[in-house]
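Quick question, first post here. What does this chain look like in 3D?
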Amino acid sequence: MIRLTVLYNLPPGQDEDAFLEWRLGEHQEANMALEGVVASEFHRVLKQERGGGGGYRFMTTVDWPDRESFERGFYDPGVQAKLEKDLERVSDPVMFVSECLVRERSETGG
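> Answer (accepted):
Ran it through. Tokens below.
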């Protein structure tokens, strides 16, 4: 599995309620419509435990089953153009692309 993780804040003066309406609606639907996407989650960061620079307020993750489908879906020119426009709604974005090497789940549903 390939995961794109994006950490970000809102620009000063951004209406958080309007942002959340867009992010939980239109933008979530767009994430799930990307070629090959199998999951997308949106999180509010509650706190940063250790290290790193300034804190981040929000986190998005988007998952693809393999590197090939990630590259086809994420690096599509239309997707990249939309990403540039969407990034205007946030500040301080940091993106990570990672490959899952092991995945286990607890028996208690975690």
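The helical segments are 16-33, 67-74, 77-86.
The chain has a mean pLDDT of 92.
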